[in-house]
Amino acid sequence: MNILLVGSGGREDAIARKISETDTLYSVVTNENPSILRLSNGVMKYTKNSQEIINFANKNKIDMAFVGPDDILDTDLVDKLRENHIPVASPGKNAAMIETSKEYMRYIMKKYKIKGDIENTLISSKDELSNFFKNNDFEYAIKPIGLTGGKGVKVMGLQLSNAAEAVKYASEIIDRDGKVLIEKREIGEEFSIQAFTDSKTVACMPVVQDYKRLYENDLGPNTGGMGSISDKNFILPFLSIDVVNEAREILKHIVNAMKEDNNPFKGVIYGQFMNTDHGVKVIEINARFADPESINVLTLLKSNIVDIFLDIYSETLKNNIKFINKATVLKYIVPPGYGIKPRETELTIKDRIETDNFKVYYSSVSGTLNKVTTTKSRSLALIGIADTIYEASDIVEGNLKYITGDYYIRHDIGTESMISRKIKD
Length: 425
Fold this sequence. Notes:
Strand order of the largest sheet: 11-14-17-22-19
CATH superfamily of the largest domain: ATP-grasp fold, B domain
Helix content: 25-40%
Number of strands: 23
Distance between the termini: 49 Å
Strand content: 25-35%
Number of domains: 3
């Protein structure tokens, strides 16, 4: 079959590799990702003109399309593909609102009384904002309604020192967006669960934990994600199966609620959850594969991804998707100054670096497989595969000598000291 993939980050490289195992890949890219270009039978540069992409799909007799990035899901592309009778296994713009509008996500949870909701308030005036903080002395998370690339949320006690800073940041969001979401701060261990769904069946993937903070020991500003871990039993050593099952049920209830709300979701959905001392809470819901968490699970995926896409489209998905029982640790190489003042650089990757237990996925870079030019975003996702999380982390560290250039990476992700600390906490 001819499969169209839209997107060209590390997440899409992982998807592209799974597609190309069995079928012919065509790609629409935002950057000239050398790995995706190597795998593709045909490539076009992304354009906001959906008709040009449809023309490309028709010319290449595309049998199935999949759209990766959140900002493209927030356009009319998926809806236009469907209107032109091109099968697609991604949500349309309305269904993608579960991610692109935090207001809509909280509305769904409240309307259908879904467990795990967080106390929240939508504020659209600065007077209301000032009064809110005068009358409440809890700590809060300040969230823009729309997409921010994982970098827009600021939390009192972390990125915001006090109420005055919270009011200032929330006021800036109101000036820009017209409204801001204020959520009560929750404390606990975060984790991600991704799932395939055809709007009826929800097939969950292994649990992954993402590390958004720029610096080691989870310090510094939020980023798009500096790395992620998964374990061979598909949960994590500091989470119980009861906690994981509770989160899975929440995700299923959200999919069911969207269908009942006449806005069915078909594609990949994932929840960012927090295990608190008063139950599992929903931090956010997203309308696509996570990045970097998707790379962990796609590296382990045994089932045919194109068959899964076909089942999503035809609403015949079964909960029998298979993954390899291994632990994974992913660490992102990023350009110098990433998250603050990034600068482009060049990286050299040794030929034939990949093995059965080590993979390199290409993200926001251009060039060749052996020499890339970075952008100001994440560059290379390095993933180790082993029987334990610690061993997988060591595999990544042991292969850094084969990548040269000026870059930054978090070495602490997946180390024994990090995991031990989480278990004790």
